[in-house]
Write a structure and sequence with these properties.
Blueprint: H1 2-7, H2 16-29, E1 33-39, E2 43-50, E3 56-58, H3 64-70, E4 74-76, H4 89-92, E5 100-108, E6 111-120, H5 129-161, E7 167-172, E8 180-183, H6 187-191, H7 193-200, H8 214-225, E9 231-237, E10 247-256, E11 262-271, H9 273-295, E12 299-304, E13 309-312, H10 314-319, H11 331-337, H12 343-355, E14 360-368, E15 374-386, E16 392-401, H13 403-432, H14 435-450, E17 452-462, E18 468-475, H15 478-481, E19 491-494, E20 497-500, H16 506-512, E21 517-519, E22 541-548, E23 551-561, H17 567-605, H18 615-632, E24 636-643, H19 646-653, H20 655-672, E25 678-681, E26 686-692, H21 696-711, E27 715-717, E28 720-722, E29 726-732, H22 740-756, E30 762-764, H23 777-785
Parallel strand pairs: 29-30
Antiparallel strand pairs: 1-2, 1-6, 2-3, 4-5, 5-6, 7-8, 7-11, 9-10, 10-11, 12-13, 12-16, 14-15, 15-16, 17-18, 17-23, 18-20, 19-20, 21-22, 22-23, 24-26, 24-29, 25-26, 27-28
Helix pairs in contact: 2-5, 13-14, 13-17, 19-20, 20-21, 21-23
C-alpha cells in the first residue's frame, strides 16, 4: 500500500496511453478482454480495460489476487479445470462464463502492486509460450507508462518543495554544454534577483558565473554528459553585481534510465557566501598555527646560524636510526649526512631564508640513515629570530619521513612510463602490423622500467608435431646475438630470430605450464636445467606468460635484476603482458585473414580439378595482356585447345579416367609453357592458353610442343593405358581485335579447321580470312622442328 500511495495511481482517471496498450494486447493475443489492475486492501482497481466495462472488483473474487499473492505469472488455459478458479462465480455462474486467464505481475520497488491480465470466454490451449512472452513485453510497456506517471508526480512535488526556502533548484537538459530547462521560483534568494532574472530571460548559466570559475562549472556539468559522472559537488563564485562576491555551492545529480541513458541533470544550489567569509578568516588563523601543528606531528629541529648548532628531538633522531644522544648536534655533521646531489639545494634555501622577506621555507631532500641507505625527508623551517640587520639568526622547523611517498611516486612514474610504452607498442603495431617491430620498440624501455640487465620477448609457435615452440625475435643477451651460444638441440638461429624448439627448461616453463616463473635462486627451481655453453651468467630470472583468452601466445623473460624479482614487479608489468597478448592475437587474426583471402582468391581463380586458371581468371588476365599489347605493340597469341574424342574416352573408360586425362593434359601445359604464359580450363575438355610477348612462329613452336607431348604420353589408369590427342587453334593479335572475345572467335575458327582436317594438329588463323594448319614456310619449318 505504501508503494501504491507513492505511485498515486489509485484515483487516477482514464488514461488514453494505457487504453491503447490494452486494445493492442487484445488484438495481438486474439483475446476479447485485457485489464491493467492495481490491488488495494479491499478492491481490485482497474486502471484500463478493453472488452469489459468494469472499474473495480472485490479483491477476494479476483483472479489477479493469486498473481499478487504469489508474485508469479499465472496461466490458466481452462479455468474450470483449475482448482484455484473452478468455484469462482465468474467461472461457474457468470453468463457467459470466463474460461481462460493469463496474468503478469506489475512490480514496483520490489512489491507486486497489480497485474496485466487477459481473459476469454473459451478455453485457450493455444495460448503458448510465445504469446506469454508477448504479454510480458506488453506488461513492460505498462510498467514504463506507470513509472513515467510516478516520475511526473515526483517532479511536481519537488518543484513545489523548492518553490521557497534557502535551496534553489535547476533542471538541465542533456546537451553539451547542458542548458537549464527549469528554474525554481526561489532562485533569486540564492543567486540574487538580478542574476536569476537574467537566467529566466534565457541567458546561458555560464554568463552569471565569475569568469575565473566558468571553466570549472562548464567541465563539471559536461562531465555528467560526457564522462557519465553520477553526482558532483562544486563551489564557485557568481559574477559580481554588488559590493561583495557571492559564493554558491551546487550539488548536481544525473538521472539515467535503466539502460544508462542520460535523461536530465538536477542541480540544487545554496548560498555559500557567509561560509566562505568564515573560511577565509579561519585560513588566516591556520597559517599562524601551521608550523606549531606540524612540529608536534613528527620531528622538530632548531638551527642557530651563528653557532651552527642544530638540535633535534628524539623523534627526528629516530627517523635516522639514532638515539638523540648519539647525534652530533652541529650543522656541519648534518650537512655531511645529506646526499651530495641535494646539498646545493639546501645551501640555496639557506641563503634565501637569511636574506629574503619570506620566513618559511619547505624542502625535500635525501639524508643518510644510520644503516647507510638514504631516506627522503620533507623539512619545514620558519625564522623565529633576526639580528639587527634583519637577517635570520635562528630557525625552527619540522622533519617528516616521506620515503614511502617517494617510493609510491617512483612507482607512479614507472607506471606512466609503462603506459607510454604500451601506447608506443600499440602505435608501432597499428602502423606496420609487425609484432617484431612492436617488440623492438618497447624492449629497451622495458628493461629500464623493470631495472633488468637482460631479457627477451618471445612468440609461441606450433612445431611440426603440434608441440609448442618459442620464437624470440627480440633478445638482449649478447651471447645469443653474437652467436657465442652455438645452435643445439634446444634452439636454432633463424633470420627472424631465435627459435627454441624444446621448452622443458626454466625459460619454457612459463609457456608449458601457463604460470609465472620467479626464480631468484636458479638452481632451486625444479625446471632449471642449467645454461647453454657460452651463455652469460644469469643470477635470477622472471618468466611472464603472455596470454589471450587464457591461452599462452608468448612470454616475456627478464633476468639479472639487482634486487631480485618480487610480486609488485609482476603486478606492475601486468598491463604490458595483457596488451602484448592482444597484439599477438591481433597478429594471428591478421595472418589468418590474409591466408583466408589468398585461399579464397586462389579458389575463385582456379579450376578445382586441374589446378589451372578458370574461365573467369583467364579472361581477366587476357584483358590485361591485351591492354599491354595495344599500348606497347608487343606480340600476343591466344590458343583454344580441345581434347580429341574425349566423349569416347569417358564412355569407354569412365568419367574418372576422363578426369585423369584432364589432369595429365594440365601437367603437360604446365611443363611445356613459360611462367609468363597462362593456361586455363574454360570448359569440359576445352582449354585456352595466353602467350604473352610471343611472335606467331614462336607461338606455333610452343603449341606444337604441347600437342606432341600429349600425343607421346601414355596415360596409366586402373591398369589400362589411355592415349589422348589434342587439336589446337591459335590466333595472333591484330589491331582489329578489339577485345578477347574477337581473338577467341578467330582461334575457335582455327580450332574448327584443325578438327576438320583430321584432329591432333595445330592450326594458326590466317588473317586473310582462312584458318589453316600450314601457315608460312617459316611456320612449317618450326612445325617440322617441333
Amino acid at each position: 500500500m505504501a508503494v501504491l500511495r507513492d505511485l498515486d495511481l489509485l484515483d487516477i482517471g482514464p488514461d488514453a496511453d494505457l487504453d491503447r496498450v490494452t486494445a493492442l494486447a487484445c488484438e495481438m493475443l486474439d483475446v476479447p478482454v485485457c485489464l491493467v489492475t492495481l490491488m488495494d486492501s479491499e478492491l481490485l482497481r482497474i486502471l484500463s480495460h478493453h472488452g469489459l466495462d468494469v472499474s473495480q472488483w472485490p479483491r477476494e473474487d479476483s483472479f489477479c489476487t493469486h498473481v499478487v499473492a504469489s508474485g508469479r505469472t499465472i496461466l490458466a488455459h481452462d479455468l474450470r479445470l483449475d482448482e484455484r478458479f473452478a468455484d469462482n462465480e465468474l467461472v461457474s455462474r457468470r453468463i457467459p462464463p470466463l474460461r481462460f486467464y493469463a496474468g503478469m505481475p506489475l512490480v514496483f520497488d520490489g512489491q507486486v502492486v497489480g497485474t496485466v491480465a487477459v481473459l476469454d470466454q473459451r478455453p485457450r490451449h493455444d495460448f503458448d509460450e510465445r504469446k506469454l512472452q508477448q504479454l510480458a513485453r506488453l506488461s513492460e510497456l505498462v510498467h514504463s507508462q506507470l513509472a513515467q506517471h510516478r516520475e511526473r508526480l515526483q517532479t511536481q512535488r519537488e518543484r513545489a518543495l523548492f518553490a521557497s526556502g534557502p535551496v534553489g533548484a535547476l533542471v538541465w537538459d542533456t546537451g553539451v554544454p547542458p542548458k537549464p530547462v527549469y528554474l525554481s521560483a526561489n532562485l533569486g534568494e540564492v543567486l540574487g534577483e538580478v542574476l536569476a532574472e537574467q537566467l529566466r530571460s534565457g541567458k546561458p548559466f555560464e554568463s552569471i558565473v565569475h569568469p575565473d570559475d566558468q571553466e570549472l562549472v562548464h567541465i563539471g556539468l559536461s562531465s555528467h554528459v560526457v564522462g557519465e559522472l553520477p553526482s558532483l559537488e562544486l563551489s564557485f563564485r557568481l559574477r559580481q553585481t554588488g559590493r561583495h562576491t557571492r559564493w554558491v555551492h551546487q550539488v548536481s545529480r544525473a538521472d539515467r534510465d535503466a539502460d544508462g541513458r542520460l535523461l536530465r541533470i538536477r542541480s540544487y544550489l545554496f548560498d555559500l557566501t557567509r561560509q566562505k567569509q568564515l573560511e577565509s578568516s579561519i585560513e588566516a588563523t591556520k597559517e599562524r598555527l601551521y608550523l606549531a601543528l606540524e612540529s608536534a606531528r613528527i620531528g622538530t629541529w632548531d638551527l642557530n646560524y651563528l653557532s651552527q648548532e642544530r638540535m633535534l628531538n628524539s623523534r627526528a633522531a629516530a627517523m635516522l636510526g639514532f638515539r638523540e644522544d648519539e647525534l652530533e648536534h652541529n650543522n656541519l655533521a648534518w650537512m655531511d649526512r645529506v646526499h651530495p646531489y641535494d646539498r646545493t639545494l639546501i645551501d640555496r634555501a639557506t641563503q634565501s631564508r637569511r636574506h629574503a622577506s619570506s620566513d618559511v621555507v619547505a624542502l625535500e631532500y635525501r639524508i643518510r640513515h644510520k644503516r647507510g641507505h638514504y631516506i627522503w625527508v620533507r623539512s619545514y623551517g620558519r625564522v623565529v629570530e633576526h639580528d639587527r640587520q634583519g637577517r635570520a639568526v635562528r630557525v625552527v622547523g619540522t622533519l617528516i619521513d616521506i620515503s614511502e611517498d617517494k617510493q609510491k611516486e617512483a612507482l607512479r612514474n614507472r607506471q606512466r612510463q609503462l603506459l607510454d610504452l604500451l601506447n608506443q607498442a600499440q602505435t608501432s603495431f597499428l602502423l606496420n602490423r609487425s609484432v617484431h617491430d612492436a617488440c623492438e620498440a618497447l624492449f629497451e624501455p622495458l628493461l629500464k622500467i623493470s631495472e633488468c640487465a637482460v631479457g627477451f620477448i618471445g612468440v609461441v609457435q606450433t612445431g611440426p608435431s603440434g608441440e609448442p615452440q618459442l620464437l624470440v625475435p627480440t633478445i638482449s643477451e649478447t651471447g645469443w646475438r653474437d652467436h657465442r651460444v652455438a645452435p643445439g638441440p634446444t634452439h636454432q638461429q633463424r633470420d627472424d630470430g631465435l627459435l627454441f624448439t624444446r621448452l622443458d627448461n626454466l625459460f619454457g616453463h612459463a609457456v608449458t605450464h601457463n604460470e609465472v616463473v620467479m626464480a631468484n635462486h636458479l638452481p632451486s627451481h625444479p625446471a632449471s636445467r642449467g645454461l647453454p655453453e657460452g651463455h652469460a651468467e644469469l643470477k635470477n630470472f622472471l618468466g611472464l606468460p603472455i596470454r589471450f583468452d587464457n591461452r599462452v601466445v608468448g612470454m616475456i623473460g627478464l633476468g639479472n635484476r639487482a634486487d631480485g624479482f618480487d610480486e609488485p614487479l609482476v603486478q606492475l608489468l601486468e598491463p604490458l603482458v595483457v596488451t602484448l597478448g592482444t597484439l599477438f592475437h591481433a597478429r594471428d587474426q591478421e595472418t589468418a585473414r590474409v591466408a583466408a583471402e589468398q585461399e579464397l582468391q586462389r579458389l575463385a581463380s582456379r579450376d578445382a580439378l586441374t589446378g589451372l586458371s578458370n574461365r573467369r581468371h583467364f579472361f581477366d588476365v587476357a584483358e590485361a595482356g591485351l591492354s599491354q599489347t595495344r599500348r606497347y605493340a608487343s606480340p600476343l597469341t591466344v590458343a583454344l585447345m580441345d581434347l580429341d574424342h574425349f566423349k569416347h574416352i569417358n564412355d569407354t573408360y569412365g568419367h574418372a579416367a576422363g578426369d585423369a586425362v584432364l589432369k595429365v593434359f594440365a601437367d603437360v601445359l604446365r611443363e611445356s609453357l613459360r611462367d609468363t604464359d597462362t593456361p586455363a580450363r574454360i570448359g569440359g575438355e576445352e582449354f585456352a592458353v595466353l602467350l604473352t610477348s610471343t611472335p606467331q612462329d614462336e607461338a606455333f613452336v610452343a603449341l606444337e610442343r604441347i600437342r606432341a607431348a600429349l600425343d607421346q604420353r601414355p596415360i596409366e589408369f586402373a591398369g589400362q593405358t589411355i592415349y589422348a590427342t589434342v587439336s589446337i587453334g591459335a590466333v595472333q593479335w591484330r589491331p582489329e581485335h578489339h577485345d578477347v572475345d574477337a581473338m577467341l572467335a578467330h582461334a575457335d575458327e582455327a580450332l574448327y579447321t584443325a578438327k576438320r582436317e583430321g584432329r591432333n594438329r595445330v592450326c594458326i588463323y590466317d588473317h586473310d580470312g582462312h584458318p589453316n594448319g600450314h601457315g608460312s614456310p617459316s611456320l612449317r619449318a618450326a612445325n617440322d622442328a617441333a
